[in-house]
Specification:
The complex is a heterodimer. By secondary structure, chain A is an alpha/beta fold. Helix content of chain A is 26%, strand content 19%. In chain A, the strands form 9 sheets. Chain A has a 6-stranded mixed β-sheet with strand order 1-3-2-6-4-5, sandwiched between helices. A 6-stranded mixed β-sheet of chain A has the order 16-15-25-24-23-17, with helices on both faces. The longest helix of chain A is centred in the first third of the chain and has 16 residues. Chain A is globular. Chain A starts with a strand and ends with a strand. The model of chain A has no long low-confidence stretch (mean pLDDT 93). Chain B is of the alpha/beta class. In chain B, a hairpin with an 8-residue loop joins β7 and β8. In chain B, α5 packs across α6 and α16 packs antiparallel against α17. Chain B is globular, with a radius of gyration of 22 Å. Chains A and B meet through α2 of A and α14, α15 and α16 of B.
C-alpha cells in the first residue's frame, strides 16, 4: 500500500518515498516525518509541533525510531519526527511498530507530567487537552514521580484578556513562536532557564497584540486562558457550531461554542484558504454586544412623542401606515453589517415594494466616485475572478492604498505577513506614516499627505505581478480609486477593494447601492427587465437613486417622506450631527435594530431583529468568497430577521416580497445570477478637493482601529482593555514647531469640535499631518464632522 | 619521568608576565603568524588537516575538516568563533591558558581566521571569569597596537577584527549553537540543526566554532609543521593536550602530554593520590563523561581508547576521587549542576534533571526504596539520547556509570545515609587527620 501527498502543485518528480511503519508514503521533498505520518493516519503525539509554526523540536514527544536513513544505516538515537526531514528510502518506525519509540514517548509524557499540577478537574482545558489526551493514549497510565512539584503563584496576567498559569505550562513555545512568527508582536517570550523556565512578558513594554487569543487556542495545556472564557464551561458540555465571523470583511471561519443558551466562546475555525487556523481578538472575544441591557426585545412605536412597547402586529401596522403615506419617497439605509440574504431583502424591498432606488448601505464617509468605482470594479465579481488570499501569498508585490491591514482586515494582515516572512513578498504602503502594523510587514512607505493619494498612486513605479489593495478610506481622497483602477489596467497588476465591514461586499452583490441592482446589474433597461422577470414585477425605478448622504439630506428637508434604517450609527458617518438632525427632521423613520441606538431613539417605529448568532445566512468576504453563517442559538424572544421584518412590511403594503427565509432569498439571488450584459463604465476621477489653507497648514489623517469604542466591541471589557491607547500623532518637527512634547495632552480642533488626547511622536509621519484614531472611545471623527484631508489645528491640551 | 610531558601550550606559563606581548614575542611568538601569512590560506588549512588535530573541546571532531566545511562560495562573511565558555565541573584548561598566555590564542585566532578567510573573529569567554576576560581584551589590544590585528596585518593586505565577548555565565553556552545565539544577544539555547554553523551560524553566515585549546594549538602546528604535531600522540589521536588533574591528588594541576598518556602515568607525575589514600574513581574528561576506576589506570587517554572503554576523552579533566568519597554524593552534586544549567528548552533535560536530583537526594539520605535503582536507571534512559542537545547525555552519563561501577553504594542508600558511610569531612581535600577538620 502506498499513499501520495495530495497537492496538485507538487510535481511527481519532487516527491520522495519513505516508509512509515512499513507503509510507503510519497511526500514532497523537505516534508517532516510527522506530516508524512499524518497522511497515512498515523498520529505521532506532539506538543510543540504545529503545522503553521516553524519546527522547534523542543518537547521531544514525537520521538520515533529511524532504522534506516535511506542509506542503509539507522540513526543511533530516536529522532523528533517534527524536525526530521524525510529522505528517499527512509524507514520510520513510530510508537505503533517500535518499542524504542513507544518507550521514548512514554518517558517524555511521564517527564512532562512530573511538574504538571494534574488539576484537570478544575482546568478549562480538561476534556480538550492534548496533554490529557496524549497522556492517555501514549503515556504509562501511572506516574512514578513522588517528589516535589514546581509551583508558581497563579495566574499571571499577560494582558487584561490573557492569563497564564505557569505551573501547567509544558514550555512547548507554541505561544511565543506564534507571537514572534505569525503575529509579529513580541508580547511574550520564554525567560529563565531549566525547570524554572517560563513564559514571560516584556515588563517595560505595554502588551499589545490583536491576535493574542490564538495563543489560548494553540496552547496544548491549560496554561493560557482568556478572561472571557476562564471557568465558564467544560468543553464536553459545549455545543459547537461552525460559522463565519461578522466583524470584518476578512471572512474568518469560526467555531462558536454555546451552553445554556449562551455563547461561551468563539474559536478560530480551520479554513486554510482564508484564516488558516487563526483569527483576531475582536472576532474571538467580541460576541456579547447583543446580550446587554440595551437589547431590544419587543417592537416600539412612538406615541405622543414617546416610544412605547407594542405588539408585532401593531408595530407592523404603524410602520406600514407611515410607509404607505410616503409612497415611493422613501430612503433605505440598510447598513454594512448585514448577511447577504438580509441585504437582498432590503434591496428588493426598496425596488419592488417601495419603488425607489434611494438605497445605500454605506454608513460611513463615501463619495460619488466610490459609487462608480464599486459598480465597475467590485460589483458582479466572483471568487473566480477576484484576488484571493492565495494570490496575496504568491504575489511579488502588494501595494496598500488607504488601507491598514492590521487595523482594517486583520487576517489579510496575517496572510501578508506570512508571505513577507516565507516568500519574500514586498509590501508598499501609500500612507501618511509607517504604522506599527505595516512595519511588521517590512513595508516600504510611500509617504503621502491625505488628499494626495491619487497622485502618489499614479506615480507608483509598478510593474508586473503586483496586487493593489485599496481600502474604503480611499473614497475620501478624490481621484484615488480611479487612479487605482487605472493602475490595475497595467499588465500584471490586479486590484482588490477591501472594506472594513463584513456585510459590504454582500450588500453590493445584493444591490444595496443606488446605482446597482442585484448581481452587479446596472439600472439600464436590459438589466431591469432581467430582474423584473425573476421578481415578477412590472416596473422597477430606472433612475439612479441618492446616496446615503443625499438620502439623509432629503429626509431632513422633507423631500423624502420616510426612512427605513437598518444597523446604522450616526457617528460612523462623516458628520454625525447632520445624520442625527436628518433623522429627527425626517417625517417618518422605521428602524430595524438589535439594540437601542441613536437611530432607534429617533425612530417612529422600532422593529427588533435577531442577532447574528441566532440566524442563518451568508457573508461575502473581500475575495467574494461566501462564508456560511449558521444559527448557533435559538432565540424565542426575537426571532425576526431583517428579511422577515421586511417581508411583513411588504405584506402590509400589499406587495409580496416573495422571500421570507434566508434560504429562499439566497436561492432567488442565485437564480438571478451574475450580470452578463454591459457593465457600468469605468470609474473616472473626480476633481481633487482644493488643498486646505488653514493656519499652519495642518491636515488630518485618520483611520479606525480594530479595537475601539465601536458598538461591536460592547460587552467585552477585557478585550477593550487591550485596545491601543488613543493618541494624537505628529512628526517630531511638527510637534517642535507647535511647542508640544511626547506624552502631553494635545487638543485637535476641527470641523465641529475638538478632541484632546496624549501626543505620540511618530518618526515616519509627514510634517504637517496630524493623525487621530477614527474612534477614540469618547468620540469619533464623525462627531467632529472632520474627514481625512481636512484642515485642523493643534494646541496644547485644553487650549482649543 | 617528566620527559613524558610535552610542554608546548604551557611552555611559557611560568615565564615572568608571560601574558605580555613582548614576553610572548621573545619566545618566538607571532613567528608562526608571519609564516602562515606567507602561505596560502588553503595551505594553512591543509597543514592543520594533515596534523590530525582533533577538537579539544571534547567531541574530538577533526579541526581541519571542520574548516573545510565552510562554503567558500557563500556570499556572506565568514566568522571564526572561539569557544571559551569553559564551565564543566572539572574542566580547567582554557581559562588558565588564556590567563597565562593569551597571545597564544590570539595568534591562533589570526592564523585560523586567515585559513577560513574570515575577517571577523569572536572570542566568547565564560561570564564569571572577568579577570580572564580583561586579560584577553588586553592581549587583543596589544595585538592591534603591534599590527597583528586590524587592517592590512603585517602589510599582507589581510584584515581581521577580533571581538572579545563575555557570556553571562551559562554552561549551555558552551554548546556551539547556544553560544552563537548568546553571541547574537539572545538567550543561549541550542539551535535546530541543520543548518549547521559551518553553513549558517553566526548571523546566519558560515561560522567555524572551535575550542580555545584547538585554536591555541594552531600556531605550533604552523611553526613546527604538521608532521611534528602528528609525531606525538596515537594513530587516531595525534598531538598533545592539557590534562587537568584535580581532586585527591598530591599535586593537582595542568599536565601537557601527548594524547594516549595513561592515568597511571599522570598520577605518577602528580605525585600520586594524597597521602595514604587510594584512587576510587575518576572522570576522564569532566563530569559529563562516564566515570572510570582504578581498573582503567593503564587505559591510554586518547579519543578512541576511552570511547572503547565506554566513556569519553572529553576535555581531559581528570577529577580524581579517593576511597573516602561517596559516589552517591558526588553524582548528586554533578546532577545538581546539570539541573541548574539545563537551559529548559527540551523536556527530558529540563524535567529529567529535576527528577534525578530528587531521587539522588533520597539515595544520599538513605531514604531510597527497593527498586529505586531500577527507576533511577529507567528514568535516566528516558533522558539520555532523547534530548535536544548533549547536555542531558552528560548528566545521565555520570548517573549510569556510577551505578554501573558502584551499585552496592546505591543499594546502601536504601537504608544508610551516605554521610554515615562516608563521613564528608574525610574527603575534604585538605583534611589533615582522619575524622577531623584541618
Amino acid at each position: 500500500m502506498s499513499v501520495d501527498a495530495k497537492d496538485a502543485a507538487v510535481q511527481k518528480s519532487d516527491l520522495v518515498s519513505v516508509f512509515i511503519d512499513g507503509t510507503e508514503v510519497r511526500v514532497p521533498k523537505g516534508t517532516m516525518a510527522i506530516r508524512a505520518a499524518e497522511l497515512i493516519g498515523v498520529a505521532i503525539p506532539r506538543f510543540c509541533d504545529h503545522p503553521l509554526l516553524d519546527p522547534m523540536g523542543a518537547c521531544r514527544q514525537c520521538l520515533v525510531e529511524v532504522p534506516d536513513m535511506g542509506n542503509g544505516r539507522g540513526m543511533p538515537k530516536p529522532q523528533a519526527a517534527c524536525t526530521l526531514e524525510v529522505a528517499p528510502g527512509m524507514k520510520i518506525a513510530t510508537q505503533n511498530t517500535s518499542e524504542v519509540a513507544r518507550k521514548a514517548q512514554e518517558g517524555i509524557i511521564e517527564l512532562l507530567l512530573i511538574n504538571h499540577p494534574l488539576d484537570c478537574p478544575i482546568c478549562d482545558k480538561g476534556g480538550e487537552c492534548p496533554l490529557q489526551n496524549q497522556a492517555m493514549t501514549n503515556g504509562r497510565g501511572e506516574s512514578r514521580y513522588g517528589g516535589v512539584k514546581r509551583t508558581f503563584p497563579k495566574p499571571v496576567s499577560i494582558s487584561a484578556q490573557i492569563l497564564l498559569d505557569r505551573e501547567r505550562c509544558v514550555l512547548c513555545a507554541r505561544c511565543t513562536r506564534f507571537s514572534e512568527q505569525i503575529a509579529g508582536d513580541p508580547f511574550i517570550a520564554l525567560v529563565e532557564r531549566g525547570a524554572l523556565q517560563q513564559v514571560g512578558i516584556y515588563e517595560e513594554h505595554p502588551y499589545h497584540s490583536y491576535f493574542s487569543g490564538n495563543v489560548v487556542q494553540i496552547c496544548p495545556v491549560g496554561a493560557l486562558t482568556s478572561a472571557a472564557y476562564r471557568f465558564q464551561a467544560r468543553p464536553f458540555d459545549l455545543v459547537s457550531t461552525v460559522t463565519t465571523c461578522e466583524h470584518c470583511a476578512s471572512g474568518c471561519e469560526l467555531r462558536t461554542d454555546h451552553r445554556h443558551f449562551q455563547v461561551k466562546r468563539r474559536l478560530a475555525g480551520n479554513l486554510p484558504a482564508v484564516n488558516e487556523e487563526w483569527n483576531c481578538d475582536r472576532g474571538r472575544f467580541a460576541y456579547r454586544y447583543a446580550q446587554g441591557d440595551d437589547r431590544l426585545t419587543h417592537p416600539l412605536v412612538r406615541e405622543n412623542g414617546v416610544l412605547r412597547a407594542a405588539s408585532w402586529p401593531e408595530a407592523i401596522d404603524a410602520a406600514v401606515a407611515g410607509l404607505r403615506a410616503a409612497g415611493s419617497a422613501v430612503g433605505v439605509l440598510p447598513g454594512g453589517r448585514l448577511t447577504l440574504e438580509n441585504a437582498y431583502g432590503y434591496a428588493k424591498f426598496a425596488r419592488a415594494v417601495l419603488g425607489t432606488n434611494h438605497i445605500d448601505y454605506r454608513s460611513r464617509p463615501h463619495s460619488a466616485e466610490e459609487l462608480a468605482f464599486l459598480a465597475s470594479e467590485v460589483a458582479g465579481r466572483t471568487l473566480a475572478d477576484s484576488v484571493t488570499y492565495a494570490d496575496l501569498e504568491a504575489a511579488q508585490k502588494v501595494v496598500l492604498v488607504g488601507f491598514e491591514p492590521e487595523e482594517e482586515s486583520p487576517i489579510v494582515f496575517l496572510r501578508l505577513r506570512k508571505a513577507v516572512r516565507k516568500k519574500g513578498l514586498q509590501v508598499v504602503a501609500v500612507a501618511p506614516f509607517l504604522s506599527a502594523g505595516n512595519a511588521k510587514l517590512s513595508a516600504t512607505l510611500v509617504a503621502t499627505r491625505p488628499g494626495a493619494e491619487a497622485a502618489a498612486v499614479a506615480a507608483l513605479p509598478v510593474e508586473g505581478d503586483t496586487i493593489v489593495l485599496v481600502g474604503e478610506r480611499a473614497a475620501l481622497a478624490p481621484g484615488t480609486l480611479a487612479a487605482c483602477a487605472a493602475l490595475a489596467r497595467r499588465g500584471g497588476v490586479r486590484l482588490a477593494w477591501i472594506p472594513r465591514r463584513a456585510g459590504e461586499i454582500g450588500a453590493i452583490e445584493a444591490g444595496c447601492l443606488p446605482n446597482l441592482l442585484p448581481g452587479g446589474r446596472p439600472l439600464d433597461a436590459a438589466a431591469r427587465v432581467d430582474v423584473q422577470t425573476t421578481w415578477g414585477v412590472d416596473h422597477l425605478p430606472p433612475l439612479e437613486g441618492m446616496d446615503a448622504d443625499g438620502i439623509l439630506r432629503a429626509a431632513g428637508t422633507g423631500h423624502l417622506k420616510a426612512l427605513v434604517v437598518g444597523g446604522v450609527e450616526p457617528t460612523d458617518f462623516a458628520d454625525a450631527a447632520a445624520v442625527r438632525a436628518a433623522l429627527e427632521a425626517a417625517p417618518f423613520v422605521v428602524s430595524l435594530e438589535q439594540r437601542v441606538s441613536e437611530v432607534t431613539e429617533r425612530a417612529d417605529v422600532v422593529l427588533p431583529v435577531v442577532s447574528i448568532d441566532r440566524q442563518a445566512g451568508t457573508f461575502v468576504n473581500w475575495e467574494h468568497r461566501r462564508g456560511r453563517v449558521n444559527r448557533v442559538l435559538r432565540d424565542d424572544r426575537v426571532a425576526m430577521t431583517d428579511l422577515r421584518v421586511l417581508a411583513a412590511l411588504a405584506d402590509g403594503l400589499g406587495r409580496d416580497l416573495g422571500v421570507r427565509r434566508p434560504s429562499a432569498a439566497l436561492a432567488e439571488l442565485d437564480e438571478l445570477g451574475g450580470w452578463e450584459g454591459v457593465r457600468s463604465a469605468t470609474a473616472s476621477a473626480a476633481p481633487a478637493r482644493p488643498a486646505p489653507s488653514a493656519p499652519g497648514g495642518l491636515v488630518l489623517a485618520s483611520w479606525r482601529q480594530l479595537i475601539d469604542g465601536s458598538a461591536g466591541n460592547a460587552g467585552a471589557p477585557d478585550l477593550v482593555a487591550t485596545a491601543k491607547q488613543p493618541v494624537v500623532r505628529l512628526s517630531a518637527q511638527t510637534a517642535q514647531r507647535l511647542g508640544l512634547s511626547e506624552g502631553e495632552d494635545v487638543t485637535v480642533t476641527a470641523g465641529r469640535g475638538d478632541l484632546t488626547l496624549p501626543l505620540a511622536i511618530e518618526p515616519t509621519l509627514l510634517d504637517g499631518v496630524v493623525w487621530v484614531p477614527g474612534n477614540y472611545f469618547t468620540g469619533s471623527t464623525g462627531e467632529l464632522a472632520v474627514r481625512p484631508g481636512d484642515a485642523v489645528t493643534v494646541n496644547r491640551g485644553g487650549v482649543a | 619521568m617528566t620527559d613524558m610531558l610535552t610542554p608546548v601550550l604551557t611552555a611559557n606559563w611560568a615565564d615572568d608576565r608571560a601574558w605580555k606581548l613582548a614576553n610572548y614575542e621573545r619566545r618566538g611568538g607571532y613567528q608562526a603568524l608571519r609564516k602562515a601569512l606567507k602561505m596560502s590560506a588553503d595551505d594553512v588549512m591543509t597543514a592543520v588537516k594533515e596534523s590530525g588535530l582533533r577538537g579539544r573541546g571534547g567531541a574530538g571532531f577533526p579541526t581541519g575538516m571542520k574548516w573545510s566545511f565552510v562554503p567558500q562560495n557563500n556570499p556572506n562573511p565568514k566568522y571564526l568563533v572561539v569557544n571559551g565558555d569553559e564551565s564543566e565541573p572539572g574542566t580547567c584548561k582554557d581559562i588558565p591558558l588564556m590567563m597565562a598566555s593569551p597571545h597564544t590564542l590570539v595568534e591562533g585566532v589570526i592564523i585560523s581566521s586567515y585559513a577560513i578567510r574570515a575577517h571577523h573573529a569572536f572570542i566568547y569567554i565564560r561570564g564569571e571569569v572577568l579577570h580572564v576576560h580583561r586579560r584577553m581584551q588586553q592581549a587583543v589590544r596589544e595585538a592591534y597596537s603591534a599590527g597583528y590585528l586590524g587592517k592590512n596585518i603585517l602589510g599582507t593586505g589581510y584584515d581581521l577584527e577580533v571581538i572579545v565577548h563575555a557570556g553571562a555565565g551559562a554552561y549551555i553556552c558552551g554548546e556551539e549553537t547556544a553560544l552563537l545565539d548568546s553571541l547574537e544577544g539572545r538567550r543561549g539555547q541550542p539551535r535546530l540543526r541543520p543548518p549547521f554553523p559551518a553553513v549558517a551560524g553566526l548571523y546566519a553566515s558560515p561560522t567555524v566554532v572551535n575550542n580555545v585549546e584547538s585554536i591555541a594549538s594552531v600556531p605550533s602546528i604552523i611553526a613546527n609543521g604538521a608532521s611534528w604535531f602528528a609525531s606525538m600522540g596515537t594513530e587516531k589521536s595525534k598531538g598533545f593536550g592539557i590534562y587537568s588533574l584535580s581532586g585527591h591528588v598530591a599535586r593537582p594541576g595542568q599536565y601537557e602530554a601527548p594524547l594516549g598518556i595513561t592515568m597511571r602515568q599522570l598520577l605518577d607525575l602528580a605525585g600520586g593520590m594524597r597521602n595514604g589514600h587510594q584512587l576510587k574513581f575518576f572522570t576522564p574528561g569532566g563530569s559529563s563523561t562516564q566515570i572510570l576506576t582504578a581498573a582503567h589506570l593503564d587505559l591510554p587517554l586518547d579519543f578512541d581508547s576511552v570511547a572503547a572503554a565506554g566513556s569519553l576523552l572529553g576535555t581531559r579533566a581528570l577529577q580524581t576521587f579517593d576511597e573516602t568519597t561517596s559516589v552517591v554524593r558526588t553524582t548528586l552534586r554533578w546532577v545538581e549542576f546539570y539541573k541548574h544549567e539545563s537551559c529548559g528548552k527540551c523536556t527530558p533535560c529540563r524535567e529529567g534533571n529535576w527528577w534525578l536530583v530528587q531521587m539522588l537526594k533520597k539515595f544520599e539520605a538513605g531514604q531510597a526504596e527497593e527498586g529505586d535503582i531500577e527507576k533511577l536507571l529507567d528514568v535516566a534512559s528516558n533522558i539520555g539520547g532523547r534530548s535536544f542537545c548533549a547536555l542531558a547525555d552528560g548528566a545521565v552519563a555520570c548517573v549510569q556509570s556510577a551505578v554501573k561501577e558502584f551499585r552496592s553504594e546505591f543499594e546502601q542508600g536504601y537504608h544508610t545515609p551516605a554521610w554515615e558511610l562516608f563521613p564528608y569531612e574525610k574527603s575534604a581535600l585538605f583534611a589533615t587527620n582522619e575524622g577531623g577538620r584541618a
